[in-house]
Write a structure and sequence with these properties.
The chain has 120 residues and is mainly alpha-helical. The protein has a domain at 11-88. It has helices spanning 11-16, 18-22, 28-40, 42-62, 71-88, 112-118. Helix 3 packs across helix 4.
Length: 120
Amino acid sequence: MSCGDPHDTECGEVLDHLYEFLDNEMAEGDCAKLRVHFEECSPCLKQYGLEQAIKALIKRSCGCDDTPADLRGKVLARIDSIRAGQRTGEALVVSVETTVEVCAEPAAEPDRAAQAAAGT
């Protein structure tokens, strides 16, 4: 994505590092560059706002789920494997398996007084 305007930091670079920025995993100097870019570029600012909202929604919706005990080990092992492949120049192939469990609360019963007032 690019807004077409020239920036010190290109839109693609900003979007490539957006989650690092959202997760406070960037050096302050790099964060400052992204903040300047967001002030200059409304499409990137809009994308930042969207990703920030999605992240907040996920945190609210999934924050109480327990992480499987072996997940951390699997993730770290996979990261090490990818890094080793990058050092040797191997092509990077990533497969992701996910399981999503959705738990929804039953809908509340309609307010009988509101229905009566509406004549339904």
